[in-house]
User: Fold DJ-1/PfpI family protein from Nocardia iowensis.
Amino acid sequence: MSDTATGRPKALIMISSARQVPLAEPAGTSFSSGFFLSEMGPLLQDFRRDHDFVFATPDGRPPQLDVNGLFLAGYATPDERAEVDAQAAAAQSAADFDAEALRRDNPELVARRDRELQTAYDLIGRITVSEILPGTEKEVASIRDEVAETFQKLPAQEWLSAKDLIDRDRDPADSFDLGEFAFVHLPGGHAPVVDFGDNPYLGELLNTLHDKGVVVSMICHGPLALVSTKYRVTDDGKVTTGGDRPLAGAHVTTLAKQLEQSSADASKGGYLAYLAIPGKHTRLIEYVEDRLREAEYQVDVPAVPTDPLAIYDEDRNLLTGDGPQAMAVQTAQLRTILAQTKAPKSANSPAP
Assistant:
């Protein structure tokens, strides 16, 4: 889709709008959550040079940023990660923890995070930020209020819902066409557990985008939306599960269950076990890797859960990444896919 004012291609960014995610244990509890900026920040920075964005959520409510996704080690390259993890873990456990000292020791990581935040301020507008959890990394906790206040000073923008997008695409009086988007990207964070995995209109949206040749990109918990593609929604709003399922059985990756479990494991010493409730056994309500396998997707995760992995299922025009560590690789791969899609056919190629 090209913006009539700028002539630039458009991309759709679909973000979960959930703000509280339930836990299986302790029963009846939930935690403040949202989307991880690091799972779309590099993509927004790269593609804003030559694309315009349309932002949407499943229900049209503004999303919430999960502050836990801003931890400095999350901005380390794979080669840097082990050293930064060890440094951050030691700093976190120190009685005289000094957030400024940790930032001074990691100026490039701070700069990468600042660039992503500035991009979000520029493009997303006013949103809320999740609350600090008992296990939130201390350096992240120290910047939470400043980030939240900055977002609150920004102008609010319109957020379309999945239903809005479908209705506009089907309205003969509206020139809007889902098929004109260059790509759609769905970031993760824990929030998609609430509104991505059993959502008929989100499923219909992804099926329609695929049917119209749009590249579908997802990362971390974002691929939960594939579970919803079992649904189709008719023009009169009837939800069915017996229609065409073009994305069924795709080869994908997602956040490894092992890494997801560690976020609620207090035995990890507190560093990055941000979901662990002190003195309680904490268990997530579901794991995206399990949900995708149960839905009969072909799921691969890296042997080392923090290693970056991106998988492109060419037959289904579907690109998935395993977590924020894969975002740079996934962004570059998306560029390549789009360039190949737009490349002119050879003169010797057979006619379609």
Q: What stands out?
A: The mean pLDDT is 92. The chain has one domain: 10-341. The two ends are 23 Å apart (CA to CA). Residues 107-123 form the longest helix (17 residues).
